[in-house]
Predict the structure.
Amino acid sequence: MAEPVRASALEGLAAEDRPRAEDAGLRMRALEGAAKSTLRGGEAIGRAAAQAAGLPFAGAMTQATFADGRAMLRLGPDEWLLTGIDAGKVAAALEGHHALVEIGERLPAIDIEGPAVRDVLAGACPLDSARVVPGFASRTLMGKAPIVLECRADDRMIFHVNRSFLDYLWLLLLELARDAGVDTGHTDA
Amino acid sequence: MNQPYRLAGGGAIDRTRPLQFTFDDRVYDAFAGDTLASALLAHGVHLMGRSFKYHRPRGPIAAGAEEPNALVQIEHGGGRTDPNTRATAVEVFQGLYAHSQNRWPSLKSDVGVINDFVSPLIPAAFYYKTFMWPRSFWDKLYEPAIRRAAGLGEAPHQPDPDRYQHRHAHCDVLVVGAGPAGLAAALAAGRAGRRVLLIDENPTLGGTLAHTSTEALADWRDRLTEELVGLPDVTILTRTTVTGYYDHNYLLALERVSDHLPPASSVRQRLWRIRAGRVVLATGAIERPLVFVGNDRPGVMLASAARTYLERFAVLVGRRPLFFTNNDSAYAVASAMKAAGAEVVAVVDVRSDPKGPLVQAARDAGIIVRTNAVVVGTEGRHRIHQAALGTLDDQGVLTGHLGTPVGCDVLLMSGGWNPNVSLHSQGRGKLRYDDGLAAFVPDGGQQQSASAGACNGVMNTARAVAEGAAAGGGAVDAPAFEEPEEESLRPVQVVPSDRSGARAKAFVDFQNDVTAKDLGIAVREGMISIEHVKRFTTTGMATDQGKTSSVNAIAIVAEQLGTPIPAVGTTTYRPPYVPLTFGAAAGHSRGRLFDVVRRTPMHGWAAEHGAVFEDVGNWKRAWYFPRSGEDMHAAVQRECKAVREGCGLMDASTLGKIDVRGKDARAFLNRVYTNAWSKLEPGRCRYGLMLRDDGFVFDDGVTACLADDHFHMTTTTGGAPRVLAWLEDLSQTEWPDLEVYFTSVTEQWATMALSGPDARDLLQPLVEEDISAAALPHLAWMEATIAGVAGRIFRISFTGERAFEINVPAGYGRHVWQALVDAGEAHGLCLYGTETMHVLRAEKGYIIVGQETDGTVTPYDLGMDWIVSTKKGDFAGKRGLLRPDLQAEGRKQLVGLATLDPDVVLDEGAQITAEAEPRIPARMLGHVTSSYMSPNCGRSIALALLAGGRERIGSHLFVPQLDGPAVEVEVVAPVFFDPKGERLNG
């Protein structure tokens, strides 16, 4: 039997929709199948999860904490998104009322980095970009796609999005990058 | 240079950059900085359009956004066309191509002008009364012929090739308008460290001071502009118009990024979506036309417009201007034009004794002033060439002629100034009538906003600056300039005239061709409310939203009604403030970004294998898989048979999936489903039905028990988001005591339904675990490794066959699918889509929520009494279900219908009647909810909701069809295939 092969949610994209923008100062890549889980529970659960994951506790609303490719994003009063973290290890450390659900397949992401990132964001996201500072995370919209926005650095954002919205978001970001003056290899001709 | 009306010097045009443009097939020259209107006026061209209804020749009356007349079509081919563009707002670029509208064969000889001669036959509201009958004339005559004769530009026929952007912006203070008040507001706020967004519709800042010839004012403007540009948190947008002011200080602004440049592939327009902490409106004032007979003749303009053409464009709108005013401001224009070389014929003033400083200055310059005087009529075919004057008494009654008609080439009028309250009004601000201005001024807002300067009725520059600065939260020095004080105006609603008859028209709304007489007709017809007058006459309803007309219209209606103006009130100014292109509104939401197209993990495979897709919400679902030569019917018939005779595979990934977890998860399920969940053991699944509070069916699906405190719920495809929201709602607001959490896992899993007698034989070799009937019976589930991928297999069947629902992580969906297809070759595996799924479940009488239900159907109506527990405690919808009407006899119930002719397939949605040809109005007994040709039954089948349906089983009824006679049917039980359900097991 053939070895299992992971398929990308972007498999339908045409070659010309793959960005050639890197040289122009914008790096954009899809992150699929990463370890990701949603954690529901009270603050004590959040603290225990942070400790197990070796991360500072994201205790304030819209706060994100990072360490070595791991991240903890506070999205609601009793909700966090954990990325890059082994859910099994965290689960073992949690006691009391909570839910830890793996959603890595559901929630791929696009990691976008470069000086044009903020223009790209303002092109389709209603959030006040002055609030989007490193360490900020929130549910919001990019165009018609509901996303979780994670700000890693002044010029680097990660857009987490449900799998079936990934290609829409990808194409939208390419358009917005063009708006921001990035040469994406597209022309109107 | 052949621009006879262009002055040798002055203006904000760039004389080193000459340009050519085309208007109505003639090439003209212009300078960079010109508008289409200013460039045409430089050539002495006033005739720029034909009016909407009467096709009267029209020229510009204004120089800015308020222009109602000079509407042109900009045309650059290839889908680049903009109808109804104000010539006063179009910046000329090299190669600009524009033509006039609503005329045939040409602007100068337009046959549509016949409407003007027959105008007594087409008074206000004639179309409401005329175009009603006969019905057959609607599409054959009225729409194509008559409506076409009235109209403006032509809509584009091709896709728009330009690029449009949206941009979100947040600021502490948004300042709209960069005149004296706006500049002061922005600077005050900017100095205080606020994030400021300053927006102005013109290419340069300054508003009324943008092109002033007064040095002190120009210095002040430049000083403020320079400081503003240097402030880090101040963003300035020019060529940008705030078009809408909505709730919560949300505003839209249209930036014309490259409209002033030749078409290119760069961004054309940008729509700003602004959320402001505070809004300062500094939108200035718009001069009010005077309503007199012949006031729409080309060459009749607002006096302030003449000043703008002079100061900004170095264009004299005429060499022999006649002025007609009721206030002082026109005198300043008269003096300026005389100084620029015009031969001012006279200033006709309705007041008896004007003697303010501006009047005095004009007199000192040798300008003749006629007091107690009015213009009673004008002459000139395509351009005014003379005006007849009359005298007024103190009561405003015409007392006689004033000499013989005087020659002139323009008539420049001023009826006072209307504070530009459009945005204030859009933002739900109130208005108050100000007697001194004879206009409406802001009177309190609903939002964090303030009006400053002329738009707030403050016409003096120094006071406007002070008010603007205060609105911006600080103080700014006023310009070192002593502005002459002005005397009060004398309002005249309609200038009296001795001319009568149909052609003696005094226009109020130029764009919609509404005259003073039309307003009178409306009042005589019984319209008392200004809102009714507006709709009856269409005054103020054109694309200019009554910028120049509405105050005059209100005053005239008040006079006609004999009530004070404040008692008449105002109508609502509606967004957009100026017309917005569809391209800008759409932004990137066009083409493949028009909407999100959601595809499943197996979509690519299905597309490569010829699937035809259907839209289910935003999802694309494989509808059927035609083989070569097959139409939909043939493909579906084949798929339906193949599933029941061998096995079939369908992509069910779009089904909603919700992870339910917590120690009270089971108790929660007991409360949201109608049936009992207390005894469902880990490893087992159960079908559940959810009701809304009112007792009607809301959603359904199978939920599996993963562990004692952990469940995997499935929902309908369309119901997934609203079921999750409903669960969260109940959990957070109704039962916060229950410890349970919900997480959407719809897209975590790729789901495939493998169904049919051969399904297990096909699947077993791919699965490491034992999936025999003993190990995995119907309505059980297990963790399994399928084609090397860890997942779950559920024994759930929506076809009535032995079936396996396989869930694997989404990214491996395609791999497992391919493995099933490969293994299926030996079993004649059939790929099937949603249509076959619909037929197969209908054969079994399984409902689809949203098809057999419509929000008014109870479980009892569906014959699903068995799923409503009478033993367990309360559940959502239980109380609603107990309402007498939901228990009453005669409700519509789910039944099957069998046509007497087995080949006839009923129309879905068709009504059911007792007789073949019932008397009209026919009594409807119910309707067909699902209808298919069933190859497994060898006949057509249908499900229906029928009043007292179960009692009627065995009786014959009729179903009228869309085309053809009513079809006789027998009412049968709603299960057509394997009524005992034996095929599910084993």
Notes: The longest strand of chain A covers residues 145-153. Chain A touches chain B through 52 residues (CB under 8 Å).
